[in-house]
Amino acid sequence: MVYNIYHPILQPPEGIGVERLILDCDPGHDDAIAILMAGLDEKLELLGITTVAGNSYLENTTMNALKVVEMAGLDVDVYAGCARPLLRDQIVAPEIHGSTGLEGAKLPTPKRQAEEKHAVDFIAEMVKAYPGEINLVATGPLTNVALFIIRYPDLVEKLKRIVMMAGGIAFGNVTPVAEFNVYADPEAANVVLRSSVEKVMAPLDVTHQAIMAAEEIERLRKTGSHILQTLADLLDFFRSTYLDLFDIDGAVLHDPCAVMYLIDPTIFECEDLYVEVELDGNLTYGQTVADIWKTMKMKPNVRVLKRIDRKAFFDRLFEDLEKLAVRK
Ligand code: RIB
Ligand code: CA
User: Fold this and answer.
1) Mutation test of ligand 1: which of 102, 173, 181 has the most ligand atoms closer than 8 Å to its C-beta?
2) Residue 254 a catalytic site member
3) Residue 5 has what pLDDT?
4) Of 7, 178, 204, 272, which residue is most buried, by most CB within 10 angstroms?
């Protein structure tokens, strides 16, 4: 018999092995799942959520973040960031996420409002407070992240790492070669890829291995929990748009891959590669070009997630989401 004895000298002190993060996002259905994982997983300490224009306009992505926080009863502040890309014309994705950016279910009206402080200044405040400890996880266009790098160059080296859902190596989803988060602000992605901080990138090549099937969405519904039924409704909407546009019958959990890397990096196979973003091409604008054959003789600048242990991914995801089943 194993005695589960709690004793101060037999247990590691609180917080050991916990990853501190700020989640910069554009909710967005998959961003919503990323928020829940970041707020619920015991491996993570979510210090704040920052929002950026992307899947929808900033007022929508910010409201959506507040609604997800309210629905899950998370105690975390939301800071609005950039309302438009650094240089290019703005694009949004109503064909995927609906006109509000999070269609498919009615979420509770948030009690909390977005904070006054700008997202980029909040990121700087946290990096100053916790030098070397902050993971900046980006699941939308990289505008806020790039602006942090430009506005606070002395703080960049104090970031622990940037983990981004960004890019596509073998394919895109907005053009044949460009992925939405990069295509929505390629100049921002360029600033981030050229920065000196440790970077991890979850491209479409890996996120398309995390497709939540209809029966897995149904598992949430069968819990009988109102929150998880609302989540299942959102995911069914997301699945329906992917079926219409890409003939993919599932909810592609792009953004949760970035958060899951922090929770358990062993779920992924990775490779350190040299990656650049195309800024001048007509057909290739916003393409992330990964030098997989090392032809450019450049030092790798980013850890690219390549393969996923799908069972381990979904086991941990359900472990986190099902914590909501006991919340009202
Ligand atoms: O290309 C997928 C990415 O674009 C995801 O972050 C999704 O939420 C959208 O923002
Ligand atoms: Ca997103």
Assistant:
1) 181
2) yes
3) 54
4) 178
